[in-house]
Design goal:
Layout: E1 34-40, H1 53-60, E2 64-70, E3 83-84, E4 94-95, H2 97-108, E5 120-129, H3 132-139, E6 143-148, H4 156-162, E7 165-168, H5 178-189, H6 200-203, E8 222-223, E9 226-227, H7 237-255, H8 257-268
Parallel strand pairs: 1-2, 1-6, 5-6, 5-7
Antiparallel strand pairs: 3-4, 8-9
Helix pairs in contact: 2-4, 3-5, 7-8
């Protein structure tokens, strides 16, 4: 399958927002840049770590854009209520569909309906596990919307009506989806052309070939009685590549037998 052409990053554009803002507010946004819309009760949590290092530099340069949407502004009544007790009883609270629906409708303004062009995610511990392949797919999209759940979760009708993809970071529970959203965006944004600068580095890292990454070393040559493996100092590119491959396979077999079995299954297909 051929890769879609890289997005143009040559022109600035201004996107619509719920409230008026000065044209001088925030970083520039290059026309066609990947845009992440995050629906959250804690918009102040963003950009968070996404504003640091290379993702933060790319955000400041307009290579990608971040639009937090405050769910509380869609809340009901004088106290901006966003949740209610679970139908059928039980502990905790559930986020209301008549709050999340309008928020998702606003986030959808100006975005394509095709999930391949604009994925819409709900961060949930019962979702499909997030993978590097997902990050690559998301990075090829025009942008994405991420709904950060809180409390006991969100009304199922919202997920069904909007066709949200439930995604999980792993078999554990967080107090909300904000940390998961930042992790997914970090993994995705770093794959956007121009963000890392050296695309080759993404081809050799963990999961790029279904394997964990080989061990890495740097100077000094000897530290605390431990030396850099001699093969890495040989200058023989073929031997170095073979050593790295063997180490990646060894680590994957030992630490992630599930990945190793998946590679075996794929090779037999």
């Amino acid at each position: 399958m051929t890769e879609p052409p890289a997005k143009s990053h040559g022109r600035l554009s201004i996107s619509a927002s719920r409230s008026p803002r000065s044209l001088m507010d925030g970083p520039p946004r290059l026309k066609g840049a990947f845009t992440a819309k995050v629906l959250t009760l804690f918009p102040e949590a963003f950009p968070g770590v996404l504003g640091a290092s290379l993702t933060g530099k790319a955000l400041a340069e307009g290579l990608w854009a971040l639009q937090p949407i405050d769910l509380r502004t869609f809340g009901l009544g004088p106290h901006r209520k966003v949740d209610d007790t679970p139908a059928g009883g039980g502990a905790g609270l559930v986020m209301r569909p008549d709050v999340l629906g309008p928020a998702l409708e606003e986030a959808a303004v100006g975005t394509p309906a095709d999930p391949a062009r604009w994925p819409r995610l709900c961060l949930s511990p019962r979702g499909v596990p997030f993978t590097q392949d997902m990050a690559r797919t998301f990075a090829r999209a025009e942008g994405m919307t991420l709904l950060c759940g809180r409390f006991e979760g969100i009304d199922q009708r919202v997920i069904d009506h909007y066709g949200l993809m439930e995604v999980s970071l792993g078999d554990f529970v967080l107090t909300g989806g904000e940390i998961a959203a930042q992790a997914i965006l970090d993994a995705t944004v770093r794959l956007i052309p121009g963000v890392l600068g050296n695309f080759a580095s993404t081809e050799e890292e963990s999961f790029s070939d279904g394997l964990l990454e080989h061990p890495q070393y740097t100077q000094p040559r000897e530290w605390q009685g431990r030396e850099i493996p001699e093969v890495l100092l040989s200058g023989h590119h073929g031997r170095v590549a073979a050593w790295r491959r063997a180490e990646a396979e060894r680590l994957t077999r030992e630490r992630r037998p599930d990945l190793w079995r998946r590679r075996d299954d794929d090779s037999r297909d």
